[in-house]
Amino acid sequence: MRKCYSLFQFYRHCLIVVWVGGYSLTLHAQQLRIDKIEPPNWWIGMKSDSLQLMLYGENLIDLKVTCKDHNFKIANIYLTQNGLYAFLDVRLGKKLLPGDYELYCSNRYGETKIKYELLKRLSEKGRYQGFSQQDVIYLITPDRFADGDTVNDNIMEMRDKFEHSSPLGRHGGDIQGIINKLDYLHNLGITAVWINPLIENNMTISYHGYGATDLYKIDPRFGSNDLYYKLVEEAHNRNLKIIMDHVSNHIGIEHPWMKNLPMPDWLNGSIDNHQLNHHGKDILQDIHGDSVLARNTLSGWFVSEMPDLDQRNPYVAKYLVQNTLWWIESSGIDGIREDTYPYVDQGYLARWNNTILGEYPKFNIVGEVWIQDPAFIAPYQQGSMLSRPRNSHLPCVTDYGLFNAFGDVFFRQQSISNIYKCISHDFLYPNPSNLLTFIDNHDVLRLIDVVKGDIRRFKMALQLLLTLRGIPEIYYGTEIGLQGGTDHGLIRADFPGGFRQSSRNAFERSGRTVQENEIFDFVQNLLKLRKKFPALMQGEMIHLPVFNEFYIYFRILNGEKIMIVVNNKDQHRQLETHFFAHHFKNTRFLLNIENNTQIAYTPGLLLEVDGFEVLKYKLE
To answer: Is 234 a residue of the active site?
Structure first.
């Protein structure tokens, strides 16, 4: 065999046929091959002139890469031991123009040319807008929202097949379905849309999107990259922002990397030798915490089907940073929700945040910090004195502290003072206005199930959410009181009318029940009030200690002062106002902003409040 190969080595790209015992054995001569390059393109004029290209192929050993244009400088090449990957450190000169650049690759296995495209950046106008407390975010699990293209329900090469009857199967929701419902969201009063991950998840139980198998590609069952860009554009045309759900912590077990890792330390552990995460996030801030258990939180696998990436590896870190920038620049999205935030190396995340916000100053990033004590959440927000000397550079964190307080009041039926006490800890946060607040989402019980179907308490909870400080998020279907269950597949229920299997269309008034229309109208009116009275969105908040299950707070902005009165008892009661009379200085009337009726203010005024009612008055 060696003699045969030596004789015909000039046929590197040809087949070799050897006759053995009457049978023909066809061999492929070893040759240099490059199959893919990531990022697939880049842009002229980014803040950093450095770019790391990851090449995929075969026989990349001793690879040399050059470019005739000296402004596209290959500064360094790192070759992996298995010969399947190469990393090129590129310096982009200031004189580079948009266009295709040819890279010449060669080694003892042959030579080849690849083209790399540098694009002109688009105008920032209407893109990368960020999100703030002036927004109301609508969270969508895309597989369960609306199926706008039934052709892509089943893709032959994808492992997980369409199985609408299974709570854990794929139901067919997609990007086109979301595009078709943007007018519905705009008319509801939503201003931003957070969508659970849309990138390729070619593995079983993949509908949720959190097990990526290609970080640069939209899952074909959801659509395509171009369709995602169209979604962002169509949303922006309706003054809706788009928030991408991003994961630095892990990938899916079926990611091609798992067949041949680029480097031994690409992951924390391996398929055969890894720890499962014990999810002890509090320990990371505990000065008495066990260091071994703390390392487990950062390096343990979330589940065995989701390998944990090691962001301490500089090539992993650079790959993830560039991947994030690529999606932002390609699509024009306005923000990111970063999954499983405490589980990721915090030094990496600080650099990741800093790089993104340095490139897109108006952008916003919210980290999912699923801890219920504000003292353990606050260190993750940028500028926190509790995380010195490191600055996280993370603008926004999920307010699981308030979520837990909502649970105390509405699920465990405890005192509303739990909400007061939680918000009283806002001194821990550098910016409590930049907290993402919510009552339900894709991981927890739906609000209608939390309150056990009690519509009065359902409305009370939503009024608190939409008038307290922070950036409120509403889970899809909450605007009609959609029911779920305790299992994730049921919590992420189909939106009625989004699928051809639906028996009715709850996106239309005629397809909703009487109760659903009541709830929809209520939510829509609440969102209108937020826009009409800016103090409800971004005003200073002053609240009073809870007494006799009355919770009273004020939102104040530029002379506009709104008083909110919450009665957490199931009975009509009178509220005496004399003990906080100082808030009524120069007040002549109390305007009920819901029904536009006025009450003349007199010292010692008694307010009539129904059971589980929330009153909202503008002081005039």
So the answer is: no
